[in-house]
């Protein structure tokens, strides 16, 4: 059978058939994912601009680079990207993102922290005088900076950081010092070899008193020679599981002096005589971390959606074993077990996509209120971004690995594109706050909310569900409606939060301190926070469907995906939904049957649903996930391009294998001659 063509592209017939049977217009769903037709066309224009740039196209394939080559290539790429962003006049954040992601997908920038943390922190935390002095230099990249928080001995526990900044009123300077081995800064991105400045977090001491963690602007390298400055020892921390393009670094300080004005003083201040002026809210200094945590949710969704695109397209092309004896080998996507591996991950990618957009929008809204002096929602934003960062990165990492294994042996090869995605996204489980600790930060907020419920106070916004009457049972029928699913998620989360809160109260009444009771309840608190975040994602997906932005066949297929996401979650955490009898045995059977029916329902649309993510082949970097489905030819070409194949006989043969064999004796030669 001749393969159909799309324009000049020859498309695998199985993949073409999948696309022809879709129940909805892929283009309309793509518009829904990227804020409409105009934004989608803008995205495509910028992606094509980046992908076809001669400098970007001329770079060596990522998988065949050494670690040093990856770093050098990334530095070349991202400096070129920064130059092109200026040349093209790209000022909007989305424009910069679309261009950069297409040019260097999952190739982290050696100057990335400059844009994502150094500049935002200067803009948010510096005084007007400091911004006037430092921002032009930073925006022109005369100063290139990073954000140095994590230490060798402390990460997520920010209050435990050991680096000190002691004010000397005699010289009007701060003395920055690493008093112990464990106090050295360790892990900050771009710190090792690239940046010449950093924003460093240190314990502030004035007049013999510690005022806690504050931010300081610290020069690291000479702006002319790039040599490290006196009193500063810094370097790269070596190869990692991934992030080969990034020079994560270490930094030790030996009584390094900086001017008093190098403390970022928009909110908290140190006067010339050493008097300390407190900020209106201590959490104001955590704005940069909150931003990154909010962004991680969107990053997670993109990583998972790319993995789903690769695995589902490959599953439509790959044929393996006949379903009926003597029949043709089946597409592996027709096996229910393959559908159960991949379709819930696809639903998760969509759920996190919409959640990422909402939480980022919430961040922008709350930070604009903070700029106007309204700090009411800081706690809620911190709890939301912390919990969703953890929830999304866990789900994403698990999902990408599920997609990789669903691709069989080929998924293990860099040719699949999946290892590159995985090692880029899995650090999100530990950077910007280790996930378990993030969940416990969310739990602290939830415990405060539950205390308000006990006092009879009305809760605002999303957490209002905590007032749910836990004595009610589910009214779910065989239809398994979205309303019933939302009620089930709210009930589960409210009950788990209540259970954790009552355990703490009971332990305190038995004589434990509040801190001991908290520590002896932390696992339940993590479970409760996870349930809370899960509920948020389900409700966000459902609210998107009712928002009027999609209709017709697109609404229908998204509704099926939303149901699958929620139903799969119920089955994965069944014990939490039935523990107090909220769901009956009959209703559990209904949910299980619904899952099987939804897998069958989504099957005809699976390829179209990943096509709607609209990832160019150059971004996926995958032989398995190509739009044309010509997997085997791509794998063959990839194998031939391996640097090991540049010679038929490698030098290592002459160095090691041949000497090991020694000289052939006559008997050996007679045997060899017969082979």
For this structure, the quaternary state is single chain
CATH topology of the largest domain: Butyryl-CoA Dehydrogenase, subunit A, domain 3
Number of strand segments: 15
Query: Can you identify the CATH superfamily of the largest domain?
Result: Butyryl-CoA Dehydrogenase, subunit A, domain 3
**SS class:** alpha+beta
| Count of individual domains | 3
CATH architecture of the largest domain: Up-down Bundle
Task: Please work out how many helical segments DSSP would assign.
Answer: 24
Could you describe the 3D structure shown?
- Strands 3, 4, 5, 7, 8 and 11 form a six-stranded mixed β-sheet that branches. A three-stranded antiparallel β-sheet has the order 6-10-9, with no helix packed on it.
- It folds into three domains: 83 residues, Butyryl-Coa Dehydrogenase, subunit A, domain 1; 138 residues, Butyryl-CoA Dehydrogenase, subunit A, domain 2 (Beta Barrel), CATH 2.40.110.10; 328 residues, Butyryl-CoA Dehydrogenase, subunit A, domain 3 (Up-down Bundle).
- The chain is 53% helix and 10% strand.
- It is α+β, with helices and mostly antiparallel strands.
- A hairpin with a 6-residue loop joins strand 14 and strand 15.
- The N terminus is likely disordered.
- The chain has 24 helices and 15 strands.
């Amino acid at each position: 059978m001749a393969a159909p063509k799309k324009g000049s592209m020859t498309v695998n017939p199985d993949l073409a058939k999948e696309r022809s049977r879709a129940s909805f217009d892929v283009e309309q769903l793509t518009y829904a994912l990227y804020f409409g037709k105009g934004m989608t066309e803008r995205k495509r224009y910028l992606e094509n601009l980046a992908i076809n740039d001669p400098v970007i196209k001329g770079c060596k394939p990522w998988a065949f680079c050494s670690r040093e080559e990856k770093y050098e290539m990334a530095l070349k790429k991202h400096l070129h990207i920064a130059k092109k962003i200026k040349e093209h006049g790209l000022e909007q954040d989305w424009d910069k993102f679309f261009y950069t992601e297409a040019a260097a997908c999952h190739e982290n920038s050696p100057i990335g922290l400059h844009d994502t943390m150094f500049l935002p922190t200067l803009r948010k935390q510096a005084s007007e005088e400091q911004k006037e002095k430092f921002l032009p230099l930073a925006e022109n990249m005369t100063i290139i900076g990073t954000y140095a928080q994590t230490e060798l001995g402390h990460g997520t526990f920010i209050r435990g950081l050991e680096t000190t900044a002691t004010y000397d009123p005699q010289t009007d300077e701060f003395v920055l010092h690493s008093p112990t081995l464990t106090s050295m800064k360790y892990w900050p991105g771009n710190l090792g070899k690239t940046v010449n400045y950093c924003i460093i977090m240190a314990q502030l001491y004035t007049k013999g008193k510690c005022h806690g963690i504050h931010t300081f602007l610290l020069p690291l390298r000479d702006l002319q020679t790039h040599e490290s400055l006196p009193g500063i020892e810094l370097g790269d921390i070596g190869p990692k599981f991934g992030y080969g393009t990034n020079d994560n670094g270490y930094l030790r300080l030996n009584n390094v002096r900086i001017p008093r004005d190098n403390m970022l003083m928009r909110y908290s201040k140190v006067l010339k005589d050493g008097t300390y002026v407190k900020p209106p809210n201590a959490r104001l200094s955590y704005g940069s971390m909150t931003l990154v945590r909010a962004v991680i949710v969107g990053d997670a969704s993109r990583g998972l959606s790319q993995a789903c695109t690769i695995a589902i397209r490959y599953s439509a092309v790959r044929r393996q074993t006949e379903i009926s004896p003597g029949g043709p080998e089946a597409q592996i996507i027709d096996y229910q077990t393959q559908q159960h591996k991949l379709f819930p991950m696809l639903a998760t990618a969509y759920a996190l996509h919409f959640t990422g957009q909402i939480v980022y929008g919430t961040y922008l809204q709350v930070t604009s209120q903070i700029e106007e002096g309204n700090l009411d929602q800081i706690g809620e934003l911190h709890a939301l971004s912390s919990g969703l960062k953890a929830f999304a990165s866990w789900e994403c990492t698990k999902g990408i690995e599920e997609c990789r294994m669903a691709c069989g042996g080929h998924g293990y090869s860099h040719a699949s594109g999946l290892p590159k995605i995985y090692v880029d996204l899995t650090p999100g489980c530990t950077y910007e706050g280790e996930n378990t600790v993030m969940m416990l930060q969310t739990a602290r907020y939830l415990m405060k909310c539950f205390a308000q419920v006990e006092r009879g106070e009305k809760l605002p916004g999303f957490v209002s569900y905590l007032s749910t009457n836990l004595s009610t049972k589910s009214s779910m029928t065989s239809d398994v409606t979205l309303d019933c699913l939302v009620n089930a998620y709210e009930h589960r989360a409210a009950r788990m939060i209540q259970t954790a809160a009552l355990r703490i109260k009971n332990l305190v009444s038995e004589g434990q301190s509040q801190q001991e009771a908290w520590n002896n309840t932390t696992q339940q608190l993590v479970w409760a926070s996870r349930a809370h975040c899960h509920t948020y994602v389900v409700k966000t997906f459902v609210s998107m469907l009712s928002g009027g932005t999609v209709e017709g066949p697109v609404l229908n297929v998204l509704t099926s995906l939303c149901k699958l996401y929620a139903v799969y979650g119920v089955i994965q955490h069944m014990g939490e939904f039935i523990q107090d009898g909220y769901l009956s045995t009959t209703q559990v059977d209904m949910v299980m049957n619904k899952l099987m029916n939804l897998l069958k329902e989504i099957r005809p649309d699976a390829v179209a649903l990943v096509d709607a993510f609209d990832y160019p082949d150059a971004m996926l970097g995958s032989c398995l996930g190509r739009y044309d489905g010509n997997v085997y030819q791509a794998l063959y070409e990839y194998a031939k391009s391996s640097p090991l194949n540049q010679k038929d006989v490698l030098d290592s043969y002459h160095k090691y294998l041949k000497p090991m064999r020694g000289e052939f004796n006559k008997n050996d030669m007679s045997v060899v001659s017969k082979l």
